[in-house]
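Dear support,

Our group has been running a series of protein-ligand predictions, and this particular one with phosphoenolpyruvate is the one our PI (initials K.S.) wants archived with full inputs and outputs. We had some confusion internally about which version of the output was final, so please treat the block below as the authoritative record. The input we submitted was:
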Amino acid sequence: MRNIVAGNWKSNKLMVEARELMVAVYKGVSVDGLTDVILAPPAPFLSALVLEAPENKSISWAGQQCSGYEMGAYTGEFTASMLHSIGVCSVLIGHSERRDKFGESEEMVAMKLRSALDSGLTAILCCGENLGERESGGHFTRVMEQLKHALHGVSEKEMEDVVLAYEPIWAIGTGRTASADQAQEMHHAIREFIKENWGEMIAGNTRILYGGSCKPSNAGEIFAQPDVNGGLIGGAALSAADFLAIVDASDQSLRETH
Ligand code: PEP
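Confirmed final output from the archive:
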């Protein structure tokens, strides 16, 4: 199975800089690599970047979020179908910054996931506990609750278009990373959850990414874990050199296990 390394540029860069970053990433990603690279720039740049991007079957584009509603009177929103119509392949759903800073409830996350799948996008569903939940030992319960809510009613077939991203909130943008063991333990629990609900084959085929201060110096160790299938990268995705080094670490981890 191929890994995924996805770069979440968050609310950073102006158009000229976004274009420069895209060009540098495209230059560095081999078409024959073992990793699917996904770029999630700010929404205003998506359409232009998708059109300008050179051909590279290893790279595709994602939205950082989408509306949970269909088209209509929702000022400021954009739908999953709109993203799909401009050549975007996937969308982040339920990123902790959306949940915490923009009040996305479990219900809203589930609506967005449904909308993404119905529009033909791959949903990259983010889950993860906060520091208090981790320290009180409630992290597994929290993550499984998030998955239960968001994935309720998702069919076996639809699970082919779901990627999961475990992102402990205490590790996002903090420079503090989950240890490889902590990541593996949670990824394994997530895979077991998928197995219980959709069966062994789907569990084995679902890619589970780690996110949270992932950088060139720690990516190799994290990606070497058996249940980690790549990463969702924030800060380090803003530098082409760092991001490409993480893509290399992903390719390397797959070469070592084949
Ligand atoms: C993220 O925003 O998904 C993320 C993982 O950020 P960072 O890599 O900066 O912690």
